[in-house]
Design brief:
Helices cover 72% and strands 1% of the residues. It has 607 residues and is mainly α. It has a domain of 73 residues.
């Protein structure tokens, strides 16, 4: 009946049944109910002075365990009795402990150690005593004692013959079987020794049996170093093999000498043989040791014979004890059968209870799983709600901070708006002033343009007259070649007069405008203009576009007055030049118009 009761139902395991307590078990049946009287103490059953020693020794032994307290062995559950082990001669001889001195010390030490580990030591001086007295002693020896004697005599004879050979061979083999450590190999230090041991190489012989390339790979050392180590290890193993051969030769020689000595012992005494024996002192010593050992063995044999006689006296006691033990076993078997039947019934009850418990436990597990799932879902929801709360708190904090920032920004914007309103008011005032000035300038410009247009018309008329005169002169030139020089001279004079007339007319016009009341022109500006020293543009070779660029540079450097003078010269050049097409003329006109606007704006900004 095992400790655990597991029943498969589907894929589930049933729980273990409850353990049996001593109180739950029924009381064991008394031996008096079986019709046999209980065994009383040894003192009451077997009185007498002859058994006094055995009774005293039995009183010191531990009591046999009761059927209730003793654990039930597996062999005795169904009434099977354990088999009685027969005593063999090997066990009897193994229990004999030999002295530590002598040639057989090593062999008997091994036997004594094995015997002590396996069997308890026997007190052969006094036989063991029990509660039950022995039967009448018989003088006949059992058969196994005679077989033990014969076996012992044969074994002692065989050991006496081959003890020296075995001892020498064992000593030689033990000497040679000792593996040489790695530190004795030349070239191996502590570090390399650790690497070799990690690789599984623990002796010089093991190292010599492998190839140096394999060792270098396995131990992770250089190949040259591995080659040296392996060569040194091979030298050590070869020297060891030579020693083994020499030891085997010595043993063979000794065996031959032993044989010759034995033959010499058996033969008649001669003087020549004594001379030969004197050279073999060691062999004589070995023979003496053999003789002493043989005497020791004979003494031991006598002791064994005496002990065997004592044991024969106790043989009947052991038989009577065995009968008593058999009766006790029968009673115990009967008790065990009854208890096993009762235990089987209890097992059935507990099995049924275990099944019901397993079903209940399965239902409880299902409910617990459902509860665990519900707990997990609730925990997940709780975590989600906590996260949402944290998010809301974070949002509240961010909203409050943003509101504060927004209030600050609004205050700053209000300040900026107040400043902008003040600036707008100033700009509106300035714009009104500029508009007034622009109106004045536009009116002034219109007047100037009207006057200039009238002058242009008059100049065009004069140009036409000049052209008519030139044509007349050209017609006359054909007829009159002599007057050509005079005509050219007159032409130059006319052109000079024409320029002077234009200049005089423009200066008269400017003078009239300046002296006119409400014109808006400062007389100081006119004086400043007269004081300016401007180079004559007509004398240079500058074109209209060069003059326009020069005016733009002057405006960039805030030289407005000089730009005005250059503008007037540009305007005169525009009227004097003859354009190849209408488009070029319109482009130059537009350029002059933009320059005029730029000059006026620069003049307004300067004020």
């Amino acid at each position: 009946m095992g400790d655990k009761l597991i029943v498969k139902k589907g894929a589930e395991k049933l729980p273990e049944p409850p353990k049996f307590d001593a109180e739950d078990l029924p009381p064991p049946p008394d031996f008096s109910e079986m019709g046999e009287p209980p065994v009383s103490s040894s003192v009451e059953t077997f009185p007498g002075a002859e058994n006094s020693e055995t009774i005293e020794e039995a009183a010191g032994l531990p009591e046999l365990p009761k059927a209730e307290d003793s654990p039930l062995p597996q062999d005795m559950v169904f009434g099977a009795l354990p088999k009685k082990e027969k005593a063999s001669p090997d066990k009897i001889l193994d229990n004999i402990v030999e002295k530590s001195s002598g040639l057989f010390s090593k062999i008997f030490r091994k036997k004594s150690k094995d015997a002590q580990a396996s069997l308890p030591g026997l007190n052969l001086e006094a036989p063991p005593s029990f509660d039950v007295p022995g039967s009448s002693a018989s003088g006949e020896e059992p058969g196994w004692m005679e077989e033990g004697k014969k076996f012992r005599e044969e074994e002692m004879a065989a050991e006496g013959e081959s003890f020296r050979e075995n001892e020498m061979e064992e000593e030689g083999e033990s000497y040679l079987a000792k593996t040489t450590p790695l530190t004795e190999v030349k070239g191996i230090g502590p570090k390399i020794e650790k690497k070799l041991k990690k690789a599984g190489i623990k002796s010089a012989e093991h190292l010599a049996a492998h190839d140096h390339v394999h060792i270098a790979k396995k131990a992770k050392i250089p190949i040259s170093q591995a080659k040296k180590i392996v060569s040194h290890a091979k030298k050590i193993t070869s020297s060891k093999a030579q020693r083994r051969e020499s030891i085997s030769d010595i043993i063979k020689g000794l065996e031959e000498e032993k044989k010759t000595l034995e033959s010499a012992k058996d033969s008649e005494f001669r003087g020549e043989k004594i001379v030969d024996l004197e050279g073999h002192n060691e062999v004589v010593q070995v023979l003496e040791r053999l003789e002493s050992k043989r005497n020791e063995l004979l003494n031991m044999q006598k002791k064994l014979e005496e002990k065997e006689k004592k044991l024969q006296g106790h043989d009947d006691v052991y038989r009577r004890d065995m009968d008593y033990v058999d009766k006790m076993k029968r009673n115990v078997d009967h008790d065990i059968r009854e208890r096993t039947g009762h235990l089987i019934e209890l097992e059935r009850e507990y099995f049924q209870k275990a099944q019901t418990l397993a079903k209940e436990r399965a239902e409880i597990e299902v409910l617990s799983k459902k509860l665990d799932e519900k707990e997990k879902t609730l925990k997940d929801k709780e975590n989600e709600l906590k996260k949402e709360l944290n998010d809301l708190e974070d949002r509240e904090i961010t909203v409050s901070t943003k509101e504060k920032k927004f209030q600050k920004i609004m205050e700053e914007i209000e300040k900026h708006n107040h400043i902008l309103k003040e600036k707008e008011d100033d700009l509106e005032k300035r714009e009104a002033e500029y508009m007034k000035k622009l109106d004045i300038l536009e009116n002034h410009e219109r007047n100037i343009l009207k006057n200039l247009e009238n002058k242009r018309v008059s100049l065009e008329k004069k140009e036409k007259e000049v052209k008519l005169r030139e044509e007349q002169i050209y017609k006359r030139q054909r007829n009159v070649d002599k007057k050509s020089v005079a005509v050219e001279y007159a032409k130059n004079i006319i052109e000079e007069e024409k320029g002077k007339l234009v200049d005089d007319e423009f200066s008269h016009y400017v003078h009239d405008q300046v002296n006119r009341p409400g014109s808006g022109v400062n007389y100081s500006d006119v004086k400043l203009m007269n004081s300016l020293n401007v180079a004559d543009v007509e004398k240079g070779t500058k074109s209209i576009y060069q003059l326009a660029d020069e005016i733009k540079r002057m405006l960039g450097s805030n030289r407005v007055e000089e730009a005005k003078i250059y503008y007037n010269q540009l305007r005169e050049r525009y009227y004097d030049t003859k354009f190849s097409n209408q488009q070029e003329q319109e482009a130059v006109h537009n350029l002059i118009r933009t320059l005029y606007d730029d000059i006026n704006l620069a003049d307004i900004g300067r004020r």
